[in-house]
Amino acid sequence: MDLVTHTDLDGVASAYFIKKHVKINEIYFAQPNQINDGTVNVPKEFIIADLPYHEKCSMWFDHHASSKINEKFEGKFDANAPSASQVICDYYKDYEDEEILREVNKADTASFSLKELRNPKYWVLLYYVLDSNQPESFLKLIIEEMKKGMKGLKENPIIFQRMNDKLEELKIGDAYLKKKSVIEGRVLYCDLRDSGLSYSPNRIFAVYPEIEYAFLLKKKEDKTAISIRANSLKRTNTIDLGKIMKSFGGGGHISAAAVLVEDSKVDSVVKKILSALN
Fold first, then answer.
1. Model's pTM, two decimal places?
2. Could you tell me the pLDDT band of residue 202, with boundaries at 50, 70 and 90?
3. Which of 19, 41, 48, 218 makes the best surface tag, with the fewest CB within 10 Å?
């Protein structure tokens, strides 16, 4: 059996939890839109986690409200779960890795304090690392080392160096954000496509805690990735961001969502997002 999962912290942790119960031959990584538009090359027999449902999968585990389906399937879906990792642990009744599950749930619901956003350490920092483009070899390394908890993760020299690099990159990103961001009403957005930076939208609220919504534009191969977040510090979000992004072919949660769009459509999509949020 193979596994197809997401590239973020929840997707990586989902792979770790599934591997505890199923013999996985190979792990593949994908983005939600690749599942939705059918551009991902799926293996012959596979489990899918933290991604939308695929009709050819043997099992499916997810919690994104925008991915809910009405047909029967093997696995588990729970839109009320804080993470796909929680869904998997509930399915297998596996709660041994309390630290990992607690921190993944916290990250995937963006339940960070302002102090944690501004001075990220350990799991919050790893969340930032995985909220950016990382090679598959690094993602697989995280999965293998995760059984040791954060103590083992930070003792791995490759992971430790990547986390330190991310701290420096965040500082550079903060400065870039202050120069290049645009604020319209209660929304801030920043175009990072020509910056070469990898920056998390949640980090924006560490710099601008008064902003209600924020989104980033990043280059993703031959398309543009748009990642949007509601300010978790305010907890006043009443707009379903997942629904907005699903209308463009993406998806997500009420307070966090993303989409990949053709470069030629970026300006139009940005205008529609701003209109929906203001």
1. 0.87
2. confident
3. 41
